[in-house]
# Entry
Amino acid sequence: MNQPRFSVIIPVYNAQHTLSKCVQSILCQAPADLELILVNDGSPDDSGTLCDELAMQDSRVRVIHQQNAGASAARNAGLNAARGSYLQFVDADDWVLPGLYARAAEVLNDSIDVLFFGVQNVGYHPEPPLPNATYASLAQVKQQFKHYLVDTGQFAAPYNKLYRASIIGSVRFDPNLRINEDLLFNLQVLQNCKAVQFLSTNYYACDHSGEGSLSRSLRTDLLDAEAATRQALTDFALHYGLSRQETDALLQARLGNVAVAQMSILMARRGSLSLRAYHKVFCRLLKNTHTRNALAQWLAKDENRLMALPYRLCIALQFAFPMAFWCWLRCSTTHSF
# Structure
């Protein structure tokens, strides 16, 4: 059996309403030497049946059925089965925009290890475009690591890239992480790459409007995820030649960014969260000088200064409980202590 050039891995869970659109966006433009691996992660809906139907309709589609173990385990199962020279990850509620594989065939050669391309965000703020550029090493953009890893996350996402399979090797997604497992994966894999190609064109549509997306869900584990990936970020920065001082600045910038993201979620997302849980997270946010400063700077830019003023006072005085109580009162759907 000839080796396919591209392997596309899609973890599937409760995706019966979006999967067909996703798959067709790939197959309608895919070359004959592409394999599409659908990993049905124990979906309780009809996603598994749909996966089998799609495989019967097109010989390029392969299906793996497994017990529910999470997106990381599903991606890992796809990685273990993939035979392509280049690998791509696609989420079942997203879709690939026209022209990706034709353009990839034009630019990929024996020296390019990773192809980066633009993403069209649906239901979320747009990302700044990538430059059209080839770099012999990511060390050439090391002074922009904050932009790519903190400000935009373009290095962190798994779906805006085509990876040479050999640089992934034995690296896998950590199934113990519920968030930032993609960042950890990329920090490890991208240390193995040499030349990379950036394309400014958007070739992927990421739908953030679903209830399960980070931008719409109430969660409290962002600080835990930052701590779990801190060493990998340190190793990545030092590997590509950042000084210790520059690396520390990058770590602090990411911590501040995560703190702002966590607080914005607590302030705006509704869900079933106890007052004690709110208080615990706010205590962690206010304990660290870098997170307090980042939150204060963020709130100082808020257009509604009157609404932001109580939060700013609480941050300055390190009063966690009033912030926790107000967010719990506004956002919790249960009001349970």
